[in-house]
Write a structure and sequence with these properties.
Layout: H1 3-15, H2 19-23, E1 26-34, E2 39-42, H3 43-54, E3 60-69, E4 73-84, E5 87-101, E6 104-112, H4 121-128, H5 135-152, H6 162-169, H7 173-184, H8 188-204, H9 214-220, H10 226-237, H11 241-256
Helix pairs in contact: 5-7, 6-7
Length: 258
């Protein structure tokens, strides 16, 4: 299959809101990677996610610019157009990088940047206008999600995905996404990391002897790599994990007069 044919067929499936047809563009073990939310969807989960998404979304996807090709790869840009009150408006742009195996995708990585909820209220309202999630139900899901995080510490699972978490909260995937984005003002990834960092701070502040290595702490709280842990920790606390642990030791020594 020519790259142009693959991309046109793939985008056409999105515009027809056909989750099964989109999944047919992947190999049996193909993966769709939603980069902004750090979520990976195997083929079966992708169908479930897209079926739910298409139940309230009427966005239109348009190829933007030229298609770049390699020996086993395709890259292209797209724009998303939403229609509201018979007026079409470009909402955001994105790019997809496709790794091929024959005529099918082993992996598609989707990069995009939607307007932020805090600064683009009207667009966010359009995005969720047909989700069917009212204020009362949103608060109920928020409470259930918070309770789940507090009692089960689900965030410690390094392989936790948005579809998996939605099944635990017992709500549709798109509703959970709205709860996290609109209810907490965070992305799915940042929401999980906020709990993971707090757990890491608790461990690093303990009076353990010997102290666990930083890498051990990173894996224990749900991170898949040391670099991701350091980046998230410094973003949240303004210092590295090692600096935070030294500060905790100094504070204890000052209090105890040692």
């Amino acid at each position: 299959m020519r790259p142009q044919d693959f991309v046109e067929s793939y985008i056409d499936a999105w515009n027809h809101r056909d989750a099964g047809c989109i999944a047919d563009h992947f190999t049996a073990d193909g993966i769709y990677c939603d980069i902004p939310s750090q979520t990976r969807y195997p083929r079966r989960e992708l169908v479930t996610y897209l079926t739910d998404l298409f139940s309230h979304s009427e966005d239109r996807y348009v190829l933007e610019g030229e298609i770049a090709t390699g020996r086993k790869s395709i890259a292209f840009q797209y724009k998303v157009i939403s229609k509201e009150a018979d007026i079409e408006e470009i909402c955001w742009y994105g790019a997809e990088f496709v790794t091929l195996q024959g005529d099918h995708a082993v992996q598609i990585a989707d990069f995009y940047e939607q307007p932020s909820i805090q600064t683009q209220g009207p667009i966010s309202t359009r995005k969720y206008a047909k989700s069917g999630l009212g204020a009362e139900l949103l608060e109920r899901y928020k409470h259930r999600l918070t309770e789940l995080m507090a009692t089960e510490k689900t965030y410690l699972d390094a392989n936790l995905t948005l579809p998996r978490l939605s099944s635990l909260v017992q709500c549709p995937v798109n509703h959970l996404s709205q709860v996290i984005n609109g209810g907490f003002g965070m992305s799915f990834f940042d929401y999980l990391n906020s709990y993971r960092i707090e757990e890491a701070k608790r461990i690093l502040g303990r009076r353990d002897d010997p102290c666990p290595p930083i890498l051990t702490v990173a894996f224990e709280v749900g991170f898949n790599s040391n670099s991701a842990f350091y980046a998230a920790f410094k973003k949240s606390c303004g210092q590295t994990p090692a600096q935070y642990r030294r500060a905790c030791r100094k504070q204890r020594a000052d209090v105890e007069g040692v």
